[in-house]
Every structure is written in C-alpha cells, then in structure tokens.
C-alpha cells in the first residue's frame, strides 16, 4: 500500500551528500509512505517503532486475559484488580510527559529503547509475585513502557512530512495498540501450551510472562541496532557535529504547556485512547463473567476489540489526511469530533445490551470508531507546535492515560457500579469530553466553527511566533521555517486564503 | 508500486474501504454464527436453587480440625446419605450424585465472579467438582485430597441429586442455610518456583546491562564523529 502526498518526486532525491530511497521534502522527511519497504531511514524507522510499541502493549496488557487464573492464585478481590488496572495505565502518565522532552533532547531511538529495556524487568518479575501488592506493583512498572507511544509519534513526525504524517502516525500507533488485542489471544494460548507441557495452572501463567518480556527486550535491541533518529542521522552525533542545535529545555516545555490546544487534545485523547485502555483492561473478564464463557473464548472476543486497531486507527489517520487534502485543518477537526462522539454513543449502548451476539457486534463497531478517533487526534497534534512537538505529543499521550486512570477510578473500581453500568457511563463521559474539540482554533486555518483569521495570519507567523527575535538571530528557528512551508497544505483545496 | 491514492483519485477510496469493510464483515459474521450456535443450546426455563429440596445429609471432616488445609497435600473426608426424614421414595428420580466444593460467604466478599445467584445456571457458588458418580442408596464416604488448583479461601461442601435429564432435583450441604457453620479453610499453592525467580533476575539484569552497554557505545560513536 502506498500513500502519496503533494510535492512527491519520482525516483531518488539527493540533498547535499545524502541520498534517500523515498522522495523527500525540504526537511528530508519522506513525502510518501510505502508500507512494504524497510528502506533506511524512513520506513525502517516506521517498522522498528511500531513493533517496539506493539511489544510494550502486549506486556502491559498481558495480565488481563489471564486474570481468571491470577485472581485465584493471588487471592485478589475486585478492588485489587481495579487498583492494578489503574496502576497499569497511571505509571505512563508521568512517563509520557517526560518522554516528550526526552525525545526532544536525546532522540526517539535512545529514549524509547531505554524505557523499553528498563521496564522489561517488571514483566519478568511478574513470574514471582505472591500477593495483591506484588501484582499492583508489577503492573504499575510494566505500564511505564506505554510511553513508547510518544517516541513513536515523535519519530514518525520527524520522518514523514505533513500530507502523510497522519497516516504514518496512525498506522504506527494503530499497529502498536494492536498489542493490546493480540495479547488477549497470545497469553491464553501460551498458557495452555505450557499447561500441556505439564505445569499446574498456578505455575503456567507465571512462565507465560517470559514471552512478552523477551519480545520487549529484543524489540529494543532492534531499535538500537537498526534505527536512526532523523533522516539526516542520529541526535547525539548531530549534536556533537553542530548540525542540530540544542534547544533550551525550559523554553521548549513552557512553550508547549502554554499552548491551550495541547490541553484540549490531552482531554479529548483521554476519552478515545483512555476508553481503549480501559476496555483492554476489563473486557475479557466482562465477557468471561457476564456470559459464562471459558478463558479462550473470552480472550478471542476481547482480542477482536484490540485487533480492530490493525485497520481502525490507521484508517483514522488516513481519513484525517484525506480530509485535510480537501478541507484542510478544519476537515481534520470535524472528522475527529464526529467520529469520537459516535464512539461514545456506541460505548454507552454496549453496556445496555444483554445478549452475547449483539454485545460482540456493537463492541466491534465501537472499537472501529474509538480507535479511528485516536488516529484522527494525531492527525492534528503534529501541527499544534513545531518547536515543542515532543511536549505536545507527550501531553496528549499522557492525557490518554489520565483518561484511563480517571475512568477506571470512577467507574471500574471495586463493586460500586456493575461493569455494564460502568461501560455506559464511560460512553457518556466520552461524549462530554469530546466537546472541547470545537474550541481548537488555528489563526492561519480556522477551527470547526470559524474560518481563518481576518488578519491574514500565515503558517510562518504561527510557527515562528514560538521563537524570540534573539533566537531567530541565532538561526535556531530554521526547522520551524521549513515546517511552516510544508504545512501550507493544511489550507485545503477550496481555500479563499490568498497565497503569500 | 503504483499508488492507491493520489490527490486526484479520491474515488479510489471506496476500494480501500471495501477491503476494510469485507474483513470486518467476515469477522463479525463468523462471530455471529458462533454466538447463534451458542445461544441455540439451552434456553430452558431458569431453574432456581430455592426450588430444590434439602434431602441429603452431608458431613465433612477435615484431616485435622482447626488447621488450614494445604492444597495438594491435605484431605477432607466427605460423607453423604439420604436424610432419614425424607419420604420413602424421594430419591426415585436421582440418577447421579454430584459433590461440589463451595465458597463460604466470607470468600465471596468483593469477588463478583463467585457470587451466589438463585438461578442454578448463573450460580457461581460451587465451581469445583469433587466427584460425580451414579446414585447409590447406601451412605457414601470419600477421602478427597484438595486439588492443586483450588484457591485460598473458606469452603463447605454441597451435594446435588441429579435426574436423568441432568437437572438438579435435590441438594444437601455440610453447612447451615446461611453457610456460616462447619466451614474449613484451604491454602492454595503459590505456584512459584526458585528457578522462575532466578530466571527473572537473570533476564532483568541482562536487559539493564545491555542498555548501559549500548549507551556507552553511543557516546563513543558520537565522540568519534565529532573528531572527524
């Protein structure tokens, strides 16, 4: 599959002393996306980052499908399980925020591999836990690895140019999130294989955890050995050789957090991705307990929710790019708001359904909408800031987890609400928290309900406003300048905005 | 490799959408078929526990009184027979006898997957079967070793008399109606092994050490490039 954006050039492109297999823009970012290629550095970065993220997702959600066994071995209560679910997604709130800055400073390759390798021990130690506290702790620390999402988005935004960045981000994140679904299939299968080899139930699940742990470790090795931060090279090498100027961390952070759009995307993402994380945690047990299915069957159904990510999230990213082509940024915003709201409606429905068949049907449709909404979110995020791309990505990603923490805390802890009621209430909260999308406004492109500013603000004005005159004098703003040029495509086709 | 999309061919979009649609349709069609088959079985009127008569007398005697039994090691002696107060041929319909291990209320607290429901099909009180055998009028006794996959908890024993259709018609239990007397406790196996703990440590150390090795190599490489 290939997705092409404007400004594509046929054949190879050379810039100074470098040659790339794919056509590139002014920043050496690829303007096309070729799924079946592993060409250095663009497509290789894509495959390495999505696979590493996938492994982290598998590890973080390896426990839920085996909970019917684990809860008996460790004598867990519903409160313990709820707390562990919250713990699994709360660790990476902090980690995602930090990861954004880490990527800005060290590059996505080192930052992500460092995180993945340092959280792998939590997965290995799951094999030895003996109490509810142990369970909560390993899920907490393993969950930090979900911050590799931020490095994935950052890496894709560094490698792929405007017209295809939504697709690249969507597919990479979607195939990573796939891990949350794949694990619901993988873990019960690994468990039954180990049982067949003679282990008791209470030992077999422990051994099973070595599989996700190993995959996590190996994927980090692959990233370190075969990956590259930027089209032009690696961060550290480029820092030292003076090619890449080091930016002021404090300025980068303050520039990011003062941009109100980042906060809105954080909230909205909390109610599409947050919902997805919550469902990953509770859905297998929900089907197991409510419909009296066995472990494998509940796992298959639970898996189909996460597996929809294979198409749904990339579909969201691609849809965002398509809307941008015609309607510019306003199209991206409308598509995002509509899809996410519909996801919330379907979620509310899901809790009200009593039959197994219809639960599965609605869950599948709901999964497509909620995951597409995640893809649509990251069609908008790369344009909010250029200087503080990492911080904004980190905030938004962290917001996703905060949504999951809040939702599980309010609706899925202990036995206050039945699971069905919790799911319905989560859907309603999702609809409410998607409304702020209506308030996102770009002076150069407009918002959902308003056109571009009458003051004729250009892309250059918007992105260069992030730099002071002093910094511009030192030429620190050149990357933003290049980005502003390529982002003109966000005006859409039917534009009354005069070309400058 | 020719492009699926280009800025001019939005009409190719339905082609992509179709393959997404097809796969989704296949996925949930197969699940629909599966669930239809599943829901076709059963569909009887809900049978209730309260409709059953308490006709069987059940006694349990743990190997040692007042001690927590260890799964896989300790034994419980279970005895059951028809109550002397029962009518003469009250057991005429019994074909099979099923002896089950059941959770006491204290082990059901904050654990909705062990909840007691009146509908027999929904009831989760007694998930573990001790034995199931053809009905014998004479008093029965069984020495049962607690199995390895029994979780930690407090338990009693219930016996169901089952007719030829597989439906429960009567029951008896070793505890009172409120399930508070004559309970015994079981401690589960931990499932852990020293070898697993050692493997965890080894793999973890390997991961962290290789990270440090990579970092050092990166720094060296950066220094080298700077010198060039």
UniProtKB/TrEMBL annotation, chain A:
Q: Which UniProt keywords apply?
A: Membrane, Transmembrane, Transmembrane helix
Q: How does it sit in the membrane?
A: Multi-pass membrane protein
Residues annotated as transmembrane: 50-69, 110-129, 136-155, 175-194, 206-226, 293-312, 333-354, 360-384, 391-411, 423-442
User: Which InterPro entries does this UniProt record tie to the protein?
Assistant: MFS, MFS_trans_sf, NO3_transporter
Q: Could you say which protein family the record assigns here?
A: Belongs to the major facilitator superfamily. Nitrate/nitrite porter (TC 2.A.1.8) family.
Q: Does the keyword Isomerase apply?
A: no
Protein name (record):
High affinity nitrate transporter 2.5-like
Read off the Pfam families from this record.
MFS_1
In terms of superkingdom, the source organism counts as Eukaryota
Query: What is the protein's species of origin?
Result: Camelina sativa
Query: Where would you find this protein in the cell?
Result: Membrane
TrEMBL record, chain B:
Signal peptide (residue range):
none
Which residue spans traverse the membrane? 198-216
Query: Which controlled-vocabulary keywords does the entry list?
Result: Cell membrane, Membrane, Nitrate assimilation, Transmembrane, Transmembrane helix
The keyword Transmembrane helix is assigned to this record: yes
Query: Which InterPro entries does UniProt cross-reference here?
Result: Transptr_NO3_Nar2
A single Pfam family it belongs to is NAR2
PANTHER family given in the database record: HIGH-AFFINITY NITRATE TRANSPORTER 3.2
- Family under the similarity heading: Belongs to the NAR2 family.
Q: What does this protein do?
A: Involved in nitrate transport.
What name does this protein carry?
Answer: High-affinity nitrate transporter
Native species of this protein?
A: Camelina sativa (False flax)
């Amino acid at each position: 599959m290939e997705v092409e954006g404007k400004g594509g050039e046929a054949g190879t492109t050379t810039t100074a002393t470098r040659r790339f297999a794919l056509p590139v823009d002014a920043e050496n970012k690829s303007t096309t996306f070729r799924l079946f290629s592993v060409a250095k550095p663009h497509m290789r970065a894509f495959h390495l980052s999505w696979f590493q993220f996938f492994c982290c997702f598998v590890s973080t959600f390896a426990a839920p499908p085996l909970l019917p066994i684990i809860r008996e071995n460790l004598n867990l209560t519903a409160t313990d399980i709820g707390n562990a679910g919250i713990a699994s997604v709360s660790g990476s709130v902090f980690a995602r925020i930090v990861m954004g800055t880490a990527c800005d400073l060290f590059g996505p390759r080192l930052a992500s591999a460092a995180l993945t390798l340092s959280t792998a021990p939590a997965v290995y130690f799951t094999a030895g836990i003996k109490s509810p506290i142990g369970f909560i702790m390993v899920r907490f620390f393993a969950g930090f690895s979900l911050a590799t999402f931020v490095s994935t988005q950052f890496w894709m935004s560094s490698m792929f140019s405007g017209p295809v960045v939504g697709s690249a981000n969507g597919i990479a994140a979607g195939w990573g999130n796939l891990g949350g679904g794949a694990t619901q299939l993988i873990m019960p299968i690994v468990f039954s294989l180990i049982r067949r080899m003679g282990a008791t139930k209470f030992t077999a699940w422990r051994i099973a955890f070595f599989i996700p742990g190993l995959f996590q470790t190996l994927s980090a090795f692959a990233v370190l050995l075969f990956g590259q931060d930027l089209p032009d090279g690696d961060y550290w090498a480029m820092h030292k050789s003076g090619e890449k100027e080091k930016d002021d961390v404090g300025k980068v952070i303050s520039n990011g957090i003062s941009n109100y759009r980042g906060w809105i995307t954080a909230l909205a993402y909390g109610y599409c991705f947050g919902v997805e994380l919550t469902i990953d945690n509770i859905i297998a047990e929900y089907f197991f307990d409510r419909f009296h299915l066995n472990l494998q069957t509940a796992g298959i159904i639970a898996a189909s929710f996460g597996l929809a990510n294979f198409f749904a999230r990339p579909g969201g990213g691609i849809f965002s790019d398509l809307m941008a082509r015609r309607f510019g940024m306003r199209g991206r915003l409308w598509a995002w708001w509509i899809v996410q709201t519909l996801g919330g409606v379907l979620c509310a429905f899901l809790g009200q359904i009593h039959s197994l068949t219809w639960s599965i049907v609605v869950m599948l449709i709901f999964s497509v909408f909620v995951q597409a909404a995640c893809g649509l979110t990251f069609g908008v995020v790369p344009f909010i800031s250029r200087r503080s791309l990492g911080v904004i990505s980190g905030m938004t990603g962290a917001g996703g987890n905060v949504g999951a923490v809040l939702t599980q805390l309010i609706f899925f802890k202990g036995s206050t609400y039945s699971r069905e009621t919790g799911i319905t209430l989560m859907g309603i909260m999702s609809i409410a928290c998607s409304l702020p999308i209506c308030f996102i406004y770009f002076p150069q492109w407009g918002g959902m309900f308003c056109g571009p500013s009458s003051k004729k603000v250009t892309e250059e004005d918007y992105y260069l406003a992030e730099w002071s005159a002093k910094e511009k004098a030192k030429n620190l703003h050149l990357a933003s300048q290049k980005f502003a040029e390529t982002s003109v495509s966000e005006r859409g086709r039917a534009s009354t905005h005069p070309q400058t | 490799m020719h492009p699926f999309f280009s800025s001019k061919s939005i009409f190719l979009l339905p082609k992509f959408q179709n393959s997404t649609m097809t796969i989704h349709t296949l996925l949930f069609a197969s699940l629909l078929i599966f669930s239809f088959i599943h829901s076709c079985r059963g569909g009887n009127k809900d049978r209730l526990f309260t409709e059953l008569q308490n006709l069987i007398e059940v006694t349990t005697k743990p190997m040692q009184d007042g001690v927590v039994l260890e799964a896989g090691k300790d034994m419980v002696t279970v005895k059951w027979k028809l109550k002397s107060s029962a009518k003469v041929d009250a057991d005429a319909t019994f074909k099979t006898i099923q002896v089950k291990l059941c959770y006491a209320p204290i082990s059901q607290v904050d654990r909705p997957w062990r909840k007691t429901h009146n509908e027999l099909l929904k009831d989760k009180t007694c998930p573990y079967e001790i034995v199931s055998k053809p009905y014998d009028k004479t008093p029965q006794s069984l020495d049962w070793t607690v199995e390895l996959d029994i979780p930690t908890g407090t338990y009693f024993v219930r016996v169901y008399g089952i007719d030829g259709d597989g439906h429960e018609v009567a029951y008896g239990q070793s505890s009172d109606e409120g399930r508070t007397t004559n309970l015994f406790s079981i401690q589960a196996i931990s499932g852990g092994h020293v070898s697993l703990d050692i493997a965890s440590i080894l793999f973890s150390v390997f991961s962290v050490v290789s990270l440090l090795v990579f970092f050092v190599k990166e720094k060296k490489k950066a220094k080298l490039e700077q010198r060039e």
